[in-house]
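Subject: sequence -> structure tokens, single chain

Hey, anyone have a minute? Need the predicted structure for the following. Not urgent.
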Amino acid sequence: MALPPAHTPSDAPSDTPGSAVRPRGIGTPGLVFFVLAAAAPLTILAGFVPLGMLAGGDAVVLGFFYPGLVYLLFAVGYTTIARHVPGGGAFLTYIAAGLGARTGSVAGMVAYVGYLGGQIGFTASASVFASLTVEGFTGLTVPWLPIALVITLAVLILGLRRVGVGAVTVAVLLVAEAAILAIFAVAVLAQGGYEGLTLTAFAPEKWVSAALPGVFVLTFVAFVGFEQTTVYRTETRSPNRTIPRATYLAVTVLVLGYTFGAWVILQAAGESRLASLLTGDPSQLVFSLNDEFVGTAITPIMLVLVVTSFFAGVIALQNTSSRYLVNLARGGLMPAGLSQLAASGSPLTANFVQTGLVLIVLCLFAVAGADPYTQIVTWTNTPTIIAVLVLQILTSLSVIVFFRRRSRGERAWNRMIAPLASAVLLALALILLISQMGALTGLGPAGNAVIIAPLVLAAAWGLVRASRIDTARATLATLGTDAAIDPDTTTIAEVGATSARTAGTASARAIDPNPDPNPRPDRKDPTP
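Reply:
Had a minute. Here:
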């Protein structure tokens, strides 16, 4: 799962199709690097691929291919509407621009619950790998729950102080992760894997394997964040050409990288002994294989990098979720007290509420005896990817509606055909994912219904609240948008939002990255 971008975009207005070229702006390579840096590839390959193999065996290798194709189609409409809607890229912005504020309100609630689930899952993952790291360095076995509590409280303190992970740190992590993965891959290939290199994972029958839908929760989530290329629109050189090109290239690199990495892990494990390796502790699969093929010298470094990547993800998700709560409260969808800010300008009440929810859920899981890796991660990441797929489907449909009223010179492929195809394929993926949830979660229909229930309740709440409050307050401007990490303060730089109205569209405010902690109640909204 990609992190929100580790770079703060300008909040200047978005460019029109005829915008001038910025000779010193970000080019295609730089934009692709931002996406890859946020993707944390070692986290996906070491943290999620073993879970995918546990659910679908070698199907996880091709499990990355299909999401990549779907997202290449999705990117066509997504980058097209980004040229016409003011502000940086955000699903909620574009949903409101085409489908209206009420749909955007529902999407905002669904997005928050998805981010909350993601944070719980990332915290559980971080605690598991942190426990392995402590054991590797000291020989002491520390239970996962105390580590999870420490991580959660540390993230709360950092969030209140507006501290986080900046662009340079994330870039260094990417280079280190790439180097570790390259060493592992070369060692496995040079030694011919465990039982000789094979391409059976790519055999014709594997492309239609019944096991594929069971791994989609993990493989689709690996691409979350690629759409952040549009966040950098105001800082990109020739954005109308650079952003689509960088988006397509980033998705392609992720597809090839994840597919190759999963195949290398499969070769190292050996298809004949894969099942037996996974019956032990699947969280240690990649590290054990690294010990076998590379040696024990760099395995501790690999563990540390996985922990730091997951921890950075928890920080990003805490920042994003707490600011969603602030904006949902400002929009009237959540209690007004959640919009209270600290003196630093970061969310105050929302940060504590977010932390409380994470702690309560983790403790309940611990009391129930749930395994933090094979159960908590999959149970909480399932609603996350469902939420993301719903947002992406709505975004694709919004593109069609938006350009139906105003084609603005865009080709039918960009404004109609590709968005429609991506909406259909994303909907199909969502249906397959839900129908095959049991293969990943290990739960029956009742248990899976419980997992999805928070999303349904959030959508219902958003719909009911949006129908009861003034339309102006329910605009996506007050709901906020996707987030970016400020490299200096790590606040969420909320991007400008636009919501469609009957008479046209109206620009609206976003959360101020340095808001007044004591706003005057009589201050009028500058939004016309």
